[in-house]
Amino acid sequence: MVLPNSPKICFRAGGSDAAQEASRVLQARYAHVPLDEADVVVALGGDGLMLDTLHQRTGLPVYGMNCGTIGFLMNDYAEDGLPERVAAAEEAVINPLAMRAGTADGHVHEALAINDVSVLRAGPQAAKLRISVNGKERMAELVCDGAIVCTPAGSTAYNYSAHGPILPIGADVLALTAVAAFRPRRWRGAILPKNATVRFDVLEPDKRPVMADADGRSVRPVLWVEIRSEPAISHRILFENGHGLAERLMREQFV
Predict the structure, then answer these.
(1) Spatial distance between the Cα atoms of 198 and 187, rounded to a whole number of angstroms
(2) Residues with catalytic function
(3) Superfamily assignment of 9-94+234-252 in CATH?
(4) pTM of structure
(5) Which site in 15, 28, 223, 234 is 20 to 30 Å from 98, CA atoms measured?
(6) Cis peptide preceding 124, ω within 30 of 0
């Protein structure tokens, strides 16, 4: 969708003093409209605010400006020419991950994740996980601190810190990365087709409790977790022209 030359903007700010001050300044300079009248959301904060804004599922594109720390999904903060910059921005469309997690009480919890779903030990002992892909067992036992399934957009976050690969945007793959794998000791993970369904079954759950986390939405303790891409849902992120998500992911590999 092409934005108008003077898009109607709904501003959304994080809780920090810097984000609140930016919101005050920009709303005084540019017209602010309610969400249901807007062409675009301008999010002022860090990546956490960007993820939270996308999770609102308004269908509107989101243009972030960094008022936080890292801000990988955000543009640099600048006050001048905001409507023109938004109108000329590059759009990246990403699909989230859908997580289903079963707990001992028989409940099945569902959540969406734009960056990643993590399955992590929730006690002093390492987790023991069985991994299946598309219903076929691929690893009978992984002893580890956890495992991550991430999208390309999330591959530079927790996944990268765990020595997982950076995935090109549009590559139609997911990364499965181990966190501090003890056995198999040198197993780092796998690259999977985007349409794969990954299942983790927790072995010895009473002795080795495990939690699941989808973009900060946690469930514990879990007995099993299933993760797949959700093509029916699309999130739209806007980046400064020439500094799109594909370029950012490329740059990260040559730092």
Answers:
(1) 17
(2) 47
(3) Probable inorganic polyphosphate/atp-NAD kinase; domain 1 (3.40.50.10330)
(4) 0.90
(5) 15
(6) no
